[in-house]
Amino acid sequence: MIDKQTTMAAAIAAVPDGAILALGGNTLHRGPFAAVHELVRQRKRGLELVKTAGAYDVDLLCGTGCAAAVSAGFVGFETLYGLAPSYRREVEQGRVLAKEHACYSVIAGLRAAIQGVPFMPIAGMLGSDLPAARGFQTVRDPYTGDGVVVIPALMPDVAIVHVQEADRTGNARIYGTRFEDLLMVRAARHVILTTERLVDGVTFEAMPESVAISGFMVDAVVEAPGGAWPGGCAGLYDFDAEYLAAYIAANKDVDSFNQFVTERILDAEPMLAAR
Amino acid sequence: MTTTGEPAPAHDAPVMMAVAMSRLLHDGETVFHGVASPLPMVATLLAKQLQAPGLVYLNITGSVDPRPERLPVSTVDPALLRGTRSLVTLTDLFDLASRGRLDVAFLSGAQIDQQGRINLSVIGDFARPKVRLPGGAGSAALMPSARRVILWRTKHDRRSFVDRLDFVTAAGNVDRVVTPLCVFVRRDGRLEVESIHPGVAPDHLQAQTGFAIAVDASTAVTPVPTAEELVMLALIDPDRVIDSEFAIG
Known about the structure:
CATH topology of chain B: Glutaconate Coenzyme A-transferase
Radius of gyration of chain A: 19 Å
CATH class of chain B: Alpha Beta
Oligomer: heterodimer
Largest sheet of chain A: 8 strands, mixed
CATH class of the largest domain in chain A: Alpha Beta
Helix content of chain B: 10-25%
Distance between the termini of chain A: 31 Å
Structural class of chain B: alpha/beta
Number of helices of chain A: 11
Distance between the termini of chain B: 7 Å
Structural class of chain A: alpha/beta
Number of domains of chain B: 1
Order of helices and strands of chain A: HEHEHEHHEHEHEEEEHEEHHH
CATH topology of the largest domain in chain A: Glutaconate Coenzyme A-transferase
Radius of gyration of chain B: 17 Å
Strand order of the largest sheet of chain B: 2-1-3-8-9-10-11
Number of strands of chain A: 11
CATH superfamily of chain B: Glutaconate Coenzyme A-transferase
């Protein structure tokens, strides 16, 4: 058994500038937000983010200059706070490329990568301008002659997933919705887990079918209690509405945004910030 | 943003919309909503308590027929897991739609045109937009593959109901569109006013709609919420989570 436990700083140091980076969770729920804060602290550049539906993570990485492109179906704060302010501004000003997907096309791209094939056919997409705008091709089904839209394989260089329970070798349990995390773990070249609790893997032997992620697919494990904050983590804590409202408010201009990032993220003690 | 200083509709718009959306669901149907969908969440829970007890309620958390104790404002919240006896994945739900087994998907658009197509991508040019919108989430995949799509939009103005979309994020099997002013039905590929909500003037509805519609004093009026609907709605959504959709830009 390989002990893969490391520090947040060391795990994130392995994410190269320019990486295609998949982030687990969905909108404000069980996203690896402590790891996202560490990406900001390490001033990563040129990241291409992969997510079905992103919120604070995608917005912050755009606003701090870490992200150059976003492959996602949806980026926003739902009806809580509406549009994602930094994502919106950075795309409108041409500094971030919005590689819009249907959520299902992100899934299709990940599935192609998982299966080791160059592309994946998907149903739907008819009548949408997205295939033309994004260069998703239609090919002829060799069996029936019908057309079908195909999504190119989407292989993240790195996936970061936050879980409730993991052992030092990367076996992990996810409580509640798994979102697209298991697809990301299988599709990515390098997998970082952050976990609320580090447990002895022996405890998984009684019910291995409850373990969502097999450790041999994982490269690094970081103990990060509160690691989804300011998002929520099923069964443990809700998202931090007060912090998020302050974040949205700070987006009103560059100075207040930079001040917020400095005070609440860069100068904050990482594990204290992670509650 | 309202485009004019027009008088507000006389009815309680969030309640009227929730009830009108709920009435469109039938017993036994499989029904799905995604992120940012408080009205579909409440409408589906309401339908299950009234005309559609056998409806299968699916949502982006993967829960099946949940019985939430408190309704979340984020419709991806684990509060929507309570009472479910199994979990499916979002991939399972898209796959279900793809093979023709999803009866109803609730979707929305920042812009909606007369064909019932939606734009949730950009205002202006796709590559260098004036406004970058959140993106269509699953709509480009679901609109052509779900058997029936119900659109909802909490603003009914000429910026939302447009003659021409800036970008077609998704098109497909739209059946109804529910707004604070009316219910549209799609017939022969075009939206027509099926009913106008109580207290809404026909000329106001036309003035707020950016494409031509046939509406006059003879247009059907959406039945007001019944006492039964109102009582059940108050039990399901005592904190009025549905109002959150009217609070944001």
